[in-house]
Amino acid sequence: MATKQAPYGTWKSPISAELLSQVSTVIDYLFVDKDNGQVYHVEKRPSEGGRSAIVNTTHQQDVLEKDWDSRTGVHEYGGVPATAKNGVLYFSSNSDRRVYEAEGKATPKAITPENENWRYADLTVIQQDPTLLLAVLEDHTKPEPANVINKLVAIEAQSQTVTPFAEGADYYAFPTVSPNKKKVAWIQWYFPDMPWEGAELVVADLVISGNSVKPANIKVVSGQKGTVSVDQPRWASDDTLLFLNDSSGYVNPLKYIVSENASTPVFKDPIQEDFAAPAWNLGRSDSAILTSENVLYASTKDGRAVLSLANLSTGSKKDLSTPYTVINFLIAISPKAAVFIGAKADQIGAVIEATLLEDGSVTYKTLKSLSSSNPALSPAIVSKAQPITLSEPPKNEPVHVLYYPPFNPEYVGVQGEVPPAVIQVHGGPTGHANAGLNWAIQYWTSRGWAWVDVNYGGSSGYGREYRDRLKGNWGIVDVDDTILAVEQLAATKLIDPTRIAIRGGSAGGYTVLATLTSPNQPFRAGTSAYGIADLKKLGDFTHKFESGYLWGLIGVDPNDEAAIDKVTAERSPLTRADQITVPLLILQGSKDAVVPPQQAELIVDSIKKRNGRVKYILFEGEGHGWRRAENIKLAWETELAWYEEVFNLSK
User: Fold this and answer.
1) Which residue has the higher pLDDT, 301 or 353?
2) Is 37 exposed, middle or buried (0-12, 13-18, 19+ CB in 10 A)?
3) pTM for the complete prediction?
4) How far from chain centre, in Å, is Cα 85?
5) Locate the Peptidase S9 prolyl oligopeptidase catalytic domain: which residues (predicted)?
6) Which among 227, 116, 214 is positioned nearest to 166, based on CA atoms?
7) How is residue 106 annotated by DSSP?
8) Which residue from 141, 203, 276, 481 has the highest number of Cβ atoms inside 10 Å of its Cβ?
């Protein structure tokens, strides 16, 4: 029972920034050795300098020594850095970019040549003895984005030889080999598309000769540049290839039958659920192929995870009961079981095993949890997300938000007072805020703040039409939806309109800056973490993966310089920086290749020239986000102190 009355925003919380930095280890990725059933996960560990550690989930132990950082830099955002077969681990090393193999306690052995300009991802083992792998190779020999080359390659381990397998497209992902090793499939796409905007599914014969491999009879079987995306091809049998396609308006599963050269939907009717999020990272898995007939799928509906069982013969879909609001990296481990990374409203992401029972029900078992035993991080202090769908005039288009009320079992607010609020704008901009437990949000709610995640038009998880609202309208729809959320939530007295801060990172940081330069904007303070200030310079200097993304977001032809100059000037916060009149905190990593530090410095310099109130912190050695514990701690402490000062929240 609450025992103290105190103004919102002044409550004492057991969740400190120091504690956040200690419990900020997260489970990023999951993969399975299908030959022996061993489950592995990858942990990002701020306490160990931000390295990514591969852990054998089954045996609860690290696979490699602490000097190994298993990461891939392909697309800058990376993805699953490893795979395993017959007890042998194959992984990408962040220190020298090479691929290594490791078995047991033996010292890992490099299987690719020395070349720090080559980055590898999507490792796929074709065979062992001799060992052959397929992989995505990103070649940065010429580092300018237009000169970076992506291709599929074959890796011959013994000779450390890398040879081209497929090239000519601008990007590649998801190489996958049929069980009989006679077929191969992959995803490819072209500039200026992102993979969720338009991509192609390719199927070819796989020709293996000794220690070499090549494709033959290559053909595109699904997808279309600019209009239809495809994703996550995986073989259910030698004749059936499962994949995802969004031609229905939602990302739905399809199956391609090799012998018929035809694709059909897995379900009888289109399902208004997205069965995958945009492919920002490589190697994701949102399906578990249990048998050639039965497949588990994870999808998103109304912002929450759905787990369902599909029958490929009948086209049936049976939704299964699950307490998990977030399900990622769903992978089969037996004909009746699968593993995934699952989070609940009051439980952070953990490795979960789901087992189907004979009566059709499902049981869940936690294989690995990072939940802290610290009593400060008790479920009793958790504020749970309340999904709210707002309506935007004049067309009454929906705007989705997650509202977290202030909550601390030891406090109540002053009668009649409305809480201050932090409005969070996610990145991407085709990202998605989910309702899984995030202790960083509880850092605020346990102090008496309300927290609002805005899934503005353009967010994923609500179908392509909702996501395409942002197409050509970045800096407009996201800004309008964020302001609308504040106005409507304030009108219902869920947040105090005089004490509202806006925050966001990357594309969310851009929306923060763009919103603060808008007339009649409602915010009184802001924080932009590695946000974009100058769209023209972003187009000139960002990395290859997103080098064409900007033009579709702002609706210009990448070859029309006049249109580029006009629209980037109109949409760039830097152009209107003189309209930023509220205190602004800027956080930036010194080694950010996605949004370079110049972007932060441009807006800081502009505000300082007119004696505006701005604070700038540059985190040395950090990239696009914070990986080191000391920087995570400093970032949260600084932001909290910034708002407390601005809103005069004395304790």
Assistant:
1) 353
2) exposed
3) 0.93
4) 26
5) 437-648
6) 214
7) S
8) 481
